[in-house]
Amino acid sequence: MPHPTRHPKSIRWLRRLAWVALAWVALSWLAVLILRFVPPLTSAVMLERRLGAWLHHEPDFHLQQHWVPWQQVTPWVPLAMVAGEDQTFPYNHGFDFRSIHEAIDAADDGRRLRGASTLTQQTAKNLFLWNGRSFVRKGLEAYFTVLIDLTWPKRRVLEVYMNIAELGDGIYGVGAASQAYFHTTPARLTPAQAARLAAVLPSPRRLHADRPSAYVLRRAGWIEQQMTQLGGPGYIDGRAPPRPPH
Prior knowledge:
The chain is mostly helical. The protein is 54% helix and 2% strand. The protein has helices spanning 9-35, 44-55, 76-85, 97-108, 119-128, 135-151, 154-164, 173-182, 191-199, 214-229; strands spanning 166-168, 171-172.
């Protein structure tokens, strides 16, 4: 009686890898799906900051963050973040390929490397990943960006982003930032204050919304101008005509 044919070891390993990959996709997508409806208790970037404070013996470090629902935040805040960080947000699918090409061209010409991350990419990175520039992290960022774009509506992306974005050293989210910097609630922030919060996003540990440098004031003024040119809060829901980013 002939013996049953045995698969080579390489085939068995490929099958195991396929099951591992399938399990990874299922579990990561489940996490993204749950977070569409449930406020995240923390984020990977917040955990990384806590760990860094512990490793560097920062006894006075205190992380400030609390969740604020969309309805309790003035629409000037998400508009300011879109105006300052990602003006194609209402119309892109997680990636701004025009900005990516421009960043690549700038790097090829030897100019300073410019950022091209959308708000969806930044949300993916802040929520699930660590800071860094490795190809592994960028690949995972792209993966989670696709999952978020497929699973979350645009408002949810903005809601999570403005609640977990670092807006100061140890200050995360618009709830903590509005209290720490302006002694008010997110619902009462003015357009100018919202623009100042968005203005520190490139470097929130060096720039200060409550003690703005000349650079922050210039950038905040530019963001306010863009908020007007984009058509106001209706732009973030696609209710204003799309404008090319400035």
